[in-house]
Amino acid sequence: MRIIHTADWHLGKSLEGRSRLAEQIDFIDELVEIVAEHSVDMMIVAGDVFDSSNPSAAAERLFFQALDRLADGGRRAVIVIAGNHDHPERLAAATDLARRYGIVLAGVPGAQVPGAHFTPDRVSIVESGPGWLRMSLPGFTYHAVIALLPYPSESRLQEAMADTLDEKVLQKAYADKIAWLLEEASLHFSEDSVNLVLSHLYTAGGAISESERDISLGGALAVSTGVFPSSSQYVALGHLHRCQEIASAGPVVRYAGSPLVYSFSEAGQAKSLTLIEVQPGQEPLREEIFLTRGRPLVRWRADSLDQVRAWCEEGRDANAWIDLEVNLAVPLSLDETAELRTLHRGFVNIRVILPGAQPLPEDEDKISHGPEEMFKRYYYLRYGGWPEPSMVQLFLELLADSGEAPAGEVAP
Fold first, then answer.
1. Dihedral angle sign, alpha carbons of residues 244, 250, 252, 256
2. Which domains does the chain have, with CATH numbers?
3. CA 380 to CA 358: how far, in whole Å?
4. How confident is the model over 106-140, as pLDDT tens digits?
5. What is the DSSP letter of 289?
6. C-beta separation of 158 from 140 below 8 A
7. Rounded distance, CA 239 to CA 151, Å?
8. Across the strands, what pairs with 26?
């Protein structure tokens, strides 16, 4: 059985206000080509299909077009779970229609997908229960059994993990809950089936990047690989954007990574899909298939404006999104900034580093910053230095006058 494991499509995501939809359309085209070229029997999407719980019509249209093309009229299984970015009920709203074409949409932990029985040349959901299903695929005498665990926050589990704020107690209670849910689902695994786990969570030991929002926000915590049933052959995960395998004494535990580079902290990463070849009772073979369609994100570090001009004129990174940092004696004028953006349409950030400027603190938790801190950071990124206290005070007064916050008080 040949399975493609992918995750974290983040359809509708932008880059500092710049749409990535054209790149995402190209990714779907490439994915469909790969699936056909490798005669794939099952497609897995391990959460974060969308970048927002309220995706645009264009993002939803792209998703449903992708499902239609990948399912091939019910001849290929497609299994999709919700991630922390997805609205679980909205993602699963088309379940009754989707299952007729071998497509499984699971929104919340413990969801049960209704059965769907068809002729042998089409995918059938033979049996199912809360958090698991058994599928029959065309051309196979054995079944695939999948334990499904969409993003399992406390709120989506509808259960408080413990009556305490003690972090260690909460962590253990959460891990125990995840282990129990997966163990219950794994009771339906068998020696003569392909046994898979599909989830969207953070496993301790995984490498993260700044484009992954802290999954603990909203009540989910990290787990160890020990929560995954030993009877499973492959654990297909989403959430981390770097393709990686997590060391495990049990089954293979793997993050597929995102199909596009979504932040400059991922600059230089090659993006890929994972092709799995597996039979009952055997360790799956894994092959990383690299993707080619997305625009790269690169960082330029220049010592002068003339150096930046020269790079642009020679066509350096012509198709890339660029984070530029340039050392100058004085801030850029508006005309110079406009000139740079004319020379290269890919500039996303343009930062000037002035003599003696203090570096920006390594803190990506933008959610916790109030307007004052965000203003200071914007000024730093724009001008290469920190604003004078009088300018900060003027900003706060203007903010208060606008009605965004009371005078003398900044909303969190």
1. negative
2. 2-290 (3.60.21.10), 296-355 (3.30.160), 359-412 (no CATH)
3. 9
4. 999 999 998 888 889 999 999 999 999 999 999 99
5. E
6. no
7. 9
8. none
